[in-house]
Write a structure and sequence with these properties.
By secondary structure, the chain is mainly α. Helix content is about 65%, strand content about 5%. A two-stranded antiparallel sheet has the order 1-2. Strand 1 (about 150) and strand 2 form a beta hairpin. Helix 1 (about 5-40) crosses helix 6.
Length: about 220
């Protein structure tokens, strides 16, 4: 089951490395946009109106010429470097996600049939779940993910708010929403685009993990 170090550690190192690539890619995109804003007029006009994807592709192929002034040449080099970095990091993140998908399909394909759960969310679920009995009720898993409601500190004692002890991550919200969706009749009738077979199994996250452990 997922507690075995080999499986959990495989998910952990791939997920951590992909996240690092995604964060670095975001930083490179921000750098590229800042460079475009401060670029010489000729370059700004050349890149103005392009979509972000087109800007990256265009800047990755820019060439500096000796006839250009030093500011223009160095800006071109900076733009090209940032754009090529973005392309490399996107490719790296895509390759790592493919590795994660292959692992999930081997170890817990049931998770991919849940609505809203892809390879990244599934990997995080398996890392967090770890072993039988760690999260007996699904409410305990939601609390661990930081997505469980708590009583709001207001005049209305019946109201609730999101837990402030742990800010919900996107993955936590996906996990919680998948559990809720799997319990809603209308959601069970809808097809899921996340699973490799293109359908929703109608089972909850807990049920999928139980099936994984039973193998």
């Amino acid at each position: 089951h997922p507690r075995r170090r080999g499986e959990r550690e495989a998910f952990r190192v791939l997920l951590a490395t992909r996240q690092s690539a995604v964060l670095a890619c975001t930083a490179a995109i921000n750098l590229l946009k800042a460079l475009i804003i401060s670029a010489p007029d000729e370059l700004r006009v050349e890149l103005r109106g392009m979509k972000s994807k087109d800007q990256v592709a265009h800047c990755a192929k820019l060439r500096d010429r000796p006839t250009q002034d030093i500011e223009h040449r160095m800006t071109v080099r900076a733009l090209r470097s940032a754009a090529q970095r973005i392309e490399a990091l996107r490719s790296e993140a895509k390759e790592l996600e493919a590795e994660l998908l292959a692992l999930v399909r081997t170890i817990a394909p049931e998770l991919l049939a849940l609505q809203g759960v892809g390879p990244i969310s599934a990997a995080q679920i398996l890392i967090s779940w770890s072993h039988t009995g760690r999260f007996r009720p699904e409410a305990a898993f939601a609390a661990f993910a930081g997505a469980a409601p708590i009583p709001a500190s207001s005049a209305q004692p019946s109201s609730t708010s999101a837990s402030s002890s742990s800010r919900p991550t996107r993955t936590a919200l996906v996990i919680s929403s998948s559990v809720l969706a799997s319990r809603t009749p209308s959601s069970r009738r809808r097809s899921s685009s996340c699973g490799p077979s293109g359908h929703n199994s109608g089972s909850s996250t807990g049920a999928a993990l139980n099936a994984t452990r039973a193998r």
